[in-house]
Design goal:
Aspartate Aminotransferase, domain 1; alpha/beta; Aspartate Aminotransferase, domain 2; 15 strands; 13 helices; seven-stranded mixed sheet; globular; 2 domains; PyrdxlP-dep_Trfase; four-stranded mixed sheet
């Protein structure tokens, strides 16, 4: 079977709206390595878009899924519950950076988690309004498209979107947006669009994922917490991409003194199995009536078993500490590359959530073209990289945190050459 043949079949069988980045097709994978159907080998710095912090097919994750397969694969938790769901909720409740007693509910996708956070916030406050931020990404469903602060490609041709959603500015020093500017944008929303007493929640990514790995300044999180407390608004941290050791902590919000009321999570929670969750203050989580939360596949037992194994691996293999160390090494390599690569405008990092932004050296404008060239040169040498950012001019690094040292060093060599060329 050839990649070209499969590509032809894909174009005939599936709609163009399901965009596909790579022209090759996966046949097997192990930790940080992918092999395609033609036997070519690729170092995976995409990890299924931040899903595989514990790598492809981690032995402990596989063993947990296999053991659960022998017991049962589905009962629908709301019909016949099971202990593993309850014990996973207990584990997350103990670790989530939430003040006071915490409760957790499980769902299937990141977008589902965010939608349910909105439902919970509205049920608890009795208010309709939701504020999010430009450059944020929260999903592809109708509510989460409304929350997402990027039009192309996510919103093109899909409107109108649910109402009572407003977008503030997210701090971004490179683009001249200070924390004060961001807070001023919220005050403008309160004056022009919605009374703060009608706002249920402010939803933000502590590190914007699709938006370019923009890290929220500590003073911004503190100011949001103060604003939310003043007006009775819930603060919701969307940790779908930042969670489970990527930033050097189990959750990115652990880097801040201020705590959110609700946290959404998915991606690396279950090592490649579809599972998401909302964790939050117990009295907030209990606002919806019985039957108001859930879903047929929500908290699937195979995915829950995988998540238990992921939590074990993160602790046993000290992946939070490893994320810090690998991220520091990558940043050093990017800093060194600046001498031979004037297109590098900024390097941003929190743990292993690392990104590099490119501008055209002549004009100073964002350069999506240069970003594509770096991606292509790296892929020619067998390194898979992802882009992001509102202007498509950022490369984000999402290698498995379990990647072997030798392979990581090899990948950084490929990256350095791609930047220099």
């Amino acid at each position: 079977m050839k990649n070209a043949e499969l590509n032809q079949r894909r174009q005939q069988a599936t709609p163009r709206g399901v965009g596909v980045m790579c022209g090759f097709y996966a046949e097997r994978a192990e930790n940080a390595t992918l092999w395609d159907v033609e036997g070519n080998q690729v170092i995976d710095f995409a990890a299924g878009i931040a899903v595989l912090n514990t790598g492809h097919r981690h032995p402990k994750v596989l063993a947990a899924i296999e053991q659960q397969l022998q017991a049962f694969t589905h009962t629908a938790y709301q019909i016949v519950p099971y202990e593993s769901y309850v014990s996973l909720a207990e584990r997350i409740n103990q670790r989530a950076p939430i003040d006071g007693p915490c409760k957790t509910a499980f769902f299937t996708t990141g977008a589902e988690a965010v939608e349910n956070a909105v439902k919970i916030a509205r049920a608890h406050t009795g208010r309709p309004g939701i504020i999010t931020f430009g450059g944020g990404f929260h999903g592809r469903t109708y509510m989460t498209m409304a929350l997402t602060g990027k039009v192309a490609p996510y919103k093109l041709g899909f409107g109108p979107f649910p109402g009572s959603v407003f977008h503030g500015q997210y701090p971004n020093a490179l683009h001249g947006v200070s924390t004060q500017d961001a807070m001023n944008s919220l005050e403008r929303i309160f004056k022009a669009d919605i009374d703060p007493k009608q706002v249920a929640a402010i939803v933000l990514e502590p590190v914007q994922g699709e938006g370019g790995f923009n890290v929220a300044p500590a003073e911004f999180i503190q100011a949001l917490r103060t604003l939310c407390d003043e007006h009775g608004i819930l603060l919701v941290a969307d940790e779908v991409q930042t969670g489970f050791a990527r930033t050097g902590k189990l959750f990115a919000m652990e880097h801040y003194d201020s705590k959110p009321d609700l946290i959404t999570m998915a991606k690396s929670l279950a090592g490649g199995m579809p599972l998401s969750a909302v964790a939050g203050r117990a009295e907030v989580m209990d606002a919806p009536a019985p039957g108001g939360l859930g879903g047929t596949y929500a908290g699937n037992p195979l995915a829950v078993a995988a998540a238990h194994a992921v939590m074990d691996v993160i602790d046993e293999e000290q992946l939070c500490q490893r994320a810090q160390r690998l991220g520091h090494h990558l940043v050093e390599v990017l800093q060194q590359a600046r001498a031979s690569c004037p297109a590098i405008a900024e390097i941003r990092a929190q743990g292993s959530m690392v990104a590099v932004e490119f501008n055209d050296p002549a004009s100073g404008q964002p350069s999506a073209e240069f970003t594509r060239q770096v991606q292509q040169k790296a892929l020619q040498e067998g390194l898979l990289l992802l882009s992001c950012g509102v202007h498509g001019n950022v490369i984000r690094f999402l290698y498995p945190l379990t990647i072997p040292e030798e392979q990581f060093t090899k990948a950084l060599g490929i990256l350095s050459r791609a930047l220099a060329e």
